[in-house]
Amino acid sequence: MKKNGIIELEGMVFHAFHGCFEKEQKEGNTFTVDFKGMLDMRQAAASDALEDTADYGLLFNIVEREMMRRSDLLENVAGRIVEAVEAEMPVFKTFSVRVSKKNPPVDGLCAWSRVTMFGGHGKMKRLGK
């Protein structure tokens, strides 16, 4: 019997320099990244052993590494995170990555702009496709 479950790292906060405008590239901004991934938790549930589940530290390090590489678009940042997680953490059947930028430069009041992308290795149908 499968014991699928979800691992989440929510509210990872970074000061980064993503954006198309000079001010964003020089001053930077606050960004948050939320990760939600589905995997088979059967072994970890039985063993209570760290090596039988996804490594949260590795996941955070992947996100941090990609957040520190400057991009114009949030889509590019999220896409790089998805590709890196797929390459380095194949344990996830499906997952989502949400990258949010605080106070985006728009003509009006806007608390956050957000991009969500999906990835994974499972046979489950991916959302957004």
Task: Provide the descriptors you would attach to this structure in a database record.
129 residues; 30% helix; single chain; 4 helices; disordered C terminus; 4-stranded antiparallel beta sheet; 33% strand
According to CATH, the homologous superfamily is GTP cyclohydrolase I, C-terminal domain/NADPH-dependent 7-cyano-7-deazaguanine reductase, N-terminal domain
- Strand runs, count: 4
CATH topology: GTP Cyclohydrolase I, domain 2
Helix tally? 4
Low-confidence segments, given as residue ranges, are 123-129
Count of distinct structural domains? 1
Average of per-residue pLDDT values: 91
Please indicate the percent range of residues in DSSP E strands (runs of 2 or more): 25-35%
- The value of Rg in angstroms is 16 Å
In N-to-C order, the SSE pattern is: EHEHHHEE
* CATH top level label: Alpha Beta
For the largest beta-sheet, the strand count, sense and barrel status come to:
4 strands, antiparallel
Percentage of helical residues? 25-40%
Q: What is the overall silhouette?
A: elongated
Named at the architecture level, the CATH assignment is: 2-Layer Sandwich
What distance separates the N and C termini? 28 Å
- Major sheet strand order: 1-2-3-4
Structure description:
By secondary structure, this protein is an alpha+beta fold. The chain has a single domain (4-119), classed as 2-Layer Sandwich (GTP Cyclohydrolase I, domain 2), CATH 3.30.1130. The chain has helices at 22-27, 42-47, 56-67, 74-88; strands spanning 4-16, 29-40, 94-102, 112-119. Strands 1-2-3-4 form a 4-stranded antiparallel sheet. Helix 3 (56-67) packs antiparallel against helix 4 (74-88). The radius of gyration is 16 Å and the shape is elongated.
